[in-house]
Amino acid sequence: MTQAARGSFRQFVAQHPWGLWWTQMVRLTRIELRRNLFSWKAGWIYFLAFVPTFILLIHLVFSHHRDFAIGDDTNILAGIIQLYYIRLGVFFGCLGIFSRLIRGEMIERSLHFYLLSPVRREVLLLAKFAAGSISASLLFVSATLANFALVYAGFGAAGSDYVFNGPGLGQLESYLTIIVLACLGYGAVFLLFSMMFRNPTPAAMLFLGWEIINPVLPSLLQRLSVASYLRHLMPITVGAQGIFALLTVQTESVSGWVATVGLLVLIAAVLAYSCYRIRTLEIRYSTD
Amino acid sequence: MSDRIVFEDVSKFYGEVLGVNRVSLSIPPGITTLVGPNGSGKTTIMNLMTGLIQPSTGTLSVLGLTPADANEFFTAVGYCAQFDFFPRGITGWQFVLDSLMLHGIEAQMARDLAVEAIDRVQLGEAASRKVAGYSKGMRQKIRLAQAIAHHPRVLVLDEPLNGLDPMARAESIALFEELGRQGMHVVISSHILDEVDRISDRVILITGGYLVAEGNIHEVRREVHEKPMQVLIRCDRPEVLASKMFSINHCVEARLHADGKGVFLRTADIDQFYSMLNGIAAEGLVKIDAVAPADDDANAIYQYLIGTEGAAS
Hints:
heterodimer, A: mainly alpha, 12 helices, 74% helix, B: alpha/beta, Rossmann fold, Alpha-Beta Plaits, 6-stranded mixed beta sheet, 4-stranded antiparallel beta sheet, elongated, disordered C terminus
């Protein structure tokens, strides 16, 4: 964005009654991003995001790639996204990032600085959600891009042809959408948990269980699961076997846009309830 | 807009535990000190005042505002809380600047205000270092800088003198006095009763969650009828003065000063006492050099109303 465009956007924002909220939200998000991404405590989230990347790098260096194996590797990549990132990596990464935003600040006894700032609590919550979502998306989208590049780099011209002339880029787009939606969905849930529970981890484990058993529940209850929406957006269905079958969601067929809108509505509902909760949040560090 | 901090029948319960009970206050501008033993409810009152906790019953407002109007309320109020914790990895400068940026003001103005606040608490070069490496006194200073940086009209300070060395303490007191003179509301909780005396326009005594007394120190002292007031009279013949006062049956206790050049007298009616003293001085029997109340201070009021059981530490 050019300097002039930035200036006119600022003017546009300042003219509106919500201009102050926007400014505060942008500034809060910047502060939170700095703290989310550049701290030693975030190390394990980087680890969760880039473990598959490291494995794929080793695979690229030490394995021979034959053209006919592109299909197999495409399935492996789909499996990594569906079974690792959605079920474990993004899930626990978001648990780490979003739990820290409220509960972590209570444990560190620094939340009151935010609550004493001239910012509506709803704006504070949404800024924290935005910062968490950007942090998580940045890490996991980067990892997904790297994974995608590493999977097809070993195939040379055939890999390049698959990506640019075949279904490759379309699949990448779907994976990135899924990862971002997963970050938003799990983020909203864990942000709420961090306000509701002193230790959000047991609740998160119950939620993981809920996500796993969700496919066998009635279709109305399936709508209360993040992973079930994401499943409909997968470009390739992974038929998991054995223990991994537990991590694979089999839900009724729903079109991609319905799944996306459905998940966004679920996220909005969770955030609306979180906004209600934060209005009555009290600072009582001694009992928290 | 009201210029007062108003509590109307405010109670706060933490589950079954009483925080404060049926507190009604109307605090005008100036320096007001909350005095009470540990666990008496001072911090609860301050947290209620700043919206960190909500009252179980009753209503309160600060200059007619409530914390629900966060933008207006926290532009008017600065709170230096007792919690000695900071966001992880932050420098003093960043701590103050981040806080100012949330007010929505221009970045350059925020930087100017941050410099001014840090100068005001005399933290100097240390502001560029991480707060984690600060001494207790420096942490206290940077919290104070953050609370005053946006020029609030109400400043709430929970034990602001804790951890400060004598020099820093004197500087902080001078700052509070200056802010009080500027017409700000400065609400302080403190255990250091001598300093409370020096700086307070009024005191609020609280114990066990109950408000015991509120007002100007001298007015509060006068209201404590069951404890006769003590006056130190510096004179050339203290024993004669004591005997004269007893003879007119107006003193309940007399004690000679250690240096023999004065006497402490206790009286139940201070106005009549002063009138009689004038009479004695006019007779020329005793040459009076100075007269001063000896138990008309926060320490004495504390002892009389709250007692030594929960003595301020």
